[in-house]
Amino acid sequence: MAETGLAELDAWLTSANDVFEIDLLRPNSQSKPTSALEEPFNPTFTYPIFGEEETIFGHKGLRIKLSLRAHDLRPSLEIRQDEVFKPIGKTQAMDVKEMMKDFLPSSAFENTASKERIDTIGWKPPGTLLTTYKRGGRSFEIWYSSLSKPEAKEILRGMQILVPLFIEGGTLQDLEEAAWTIERWKLFLIYEVTPLKSSPKSTPYTFVGFSTSYRLWVPPTVEISERLSFVSSTPVPLPTLGPNPSDVEHDKLPPYNPLESPSRERISQFLILPPFQGQSHGAALYTAMASLFRSDASVFEITVEDPNEAFDDLRDWSDLAYLRSTFPSFKTLQVPDSVPAEMLAPKEFIPVNYLLPPDVADPIRYKSKIAPRQFARLCEMHLLSGIPPLHRSKARITRKDKSAHENDRRYFFWRLLVKERLYIRNKDQLVQLDREERIEKVEQTVDSVEEEYVRLLNAAEKRGHRGTMGEEEAANGKALASRGKRKTRVVEEDEDEDEDDTDHSKRIKRA
After folding, report:
1. 140 in helix, strand or coil?
2. Do strands 63-69 and 75-80 pair parallel, antiparallel, or not at all (unpaired)?
3. C-alpha distances out from residue 492 to 74, 262, 425, 445, 484, Å
4. What confidence score (pLDDT) does residue 481 get?
5. Do residues 271 and 230 lie in contact, with contact meaning Cβ atoms separated by under 8 Å?
6. pTM for this one?
7. Of 159, 151, 148, 160, which Cα lies nearest the Cα of 126?
């Protein structure tokens, strides 16, 4: 009897991911709204709303339809079911509508936002047109705006339920923050621009994806000022108060605008809707954002908030293509095939500055505004690409720097370069191991890093040949996602990107 009762209860369980559909509707002034897509799509995650099991109890024939107006993302929710479970004691059906109230504005439950007949002729996305591009004969535009603009904030408010539905670990943004905080946020929007022949008064804009970024102010230092001056014809000066700041009258202080002060620009949420994935829109969006940040005199570094592996791939492909196409000095970087003997003495530090000269690398990093760890990885990746695959073998470098072939020696020096970076980043964990185990762990990690680089280089080459460098075939651009751990990684690298990798007190000496 108990088993029969459980089976009956199971019949009332529904997979939330399967019954939840999302559609983009284009308003039409002459008839009912039409879908902008070939078919609706399902969310990737529903656990933030319905719990870890992603199941809904108490409904048969349940259908959840979230419609978003394709241009301004105003949502409308429709919930239908054939039958609802009658309560037995404390066991009752889940209230789907109530559970979704924290994820949608109240207007979404009025069930009219996407269905009303409206004229949207002349409507354009809020803010500034950043760039245009074409894919398969279709036209697309990327716009950006400060969230201080009410129109931009309302767009994000309406569609930010997409964040927990498609970004693992993604959370809704607090849009009621103080004005000075909201001003630091930017919203980037991709739209397909295709007029409806049947309704010339309808907007041609259909939402494709979005990203947000946050301006992170940092205390001004001489180093940051010099870096900004290095890359900008209009450098951002440091605040100066004279020899004795206490003598300066407050009302004579220069005006201070934190949005124009030295800052990091941090990419936060990043999403391309499933129907538009695999078409290089992620690369177009990331490239446009990075270009905007690089042109901003007050931004000295571009970072990403907790990227997942898929977004890392997208960024790696895009950044590598940018560096190779923009900086001839980067494209010609090569690991030397010999190093002065005195630099390789057993008790000397690994000669990083000889293997990757800072007078060549630093100007590229400053101008590209790529974060230190990301730039180091790109250099390692590019340097590895210059070593033929035949010579990327530990069996060929048993004689280390005295190996017979120049490319074998380059491979030995390349591994030294990677080991140095990994050791510095993981010194606190590694020093707890005995010497032999420490060496083994670092060697294993270099092997896994090399394997990862080879995969990325091969993918980058294929995408480069197709003219789609960096497309997000696997990269749903989930920058705000909880980061999955690489299975082959032995030593962890995943630390805060805002940290610099220049603490040479942690450097290792050659044994």
Report:
1. strand
2. antiparallel
3. 42, 30, 8, 9, 12
4. 37
5. no
6. 0.87
7. 151
Mean pLDDT of the residues in the chain: 85
Q: CB of 79 within 8 A of CB of 98?
A: no
pLDDT at position 498 is 53
Exactly one of 54, 192, 301, 305 is catalytic; name it: 305
Q: How many CB atoms lie within 10 A of CB 83?
A: 12
The answer to whether the annotation marks 308 as part of a ligand binding site is yes
Task: For residue 396, give Cα distances in angstroms to 201, 335, 389, 416, 510.
Answer: 69, 17, 12, 15, 19
Q: Is 271 annotated as a binding residue?
A: yes
CATH superfamily of 2-110: Histone acetyl transferase 1 (HAT1), N-terminal domain (3.90.360.10)
Look up 305 and say whether it is catalytic.
yes
Query: DSSP per residue over 101-130, as a string?
Result: GGGS-GGGGGS-TTTS----TT---SSEEE
Distance of alpha carbon 94 from alpha carbon 56, whole angstroms: 7
Is 272 labelled as part of a ligand binding site? Answer: yes
Domain 128-236+258-314 class in CATH: alpha beta
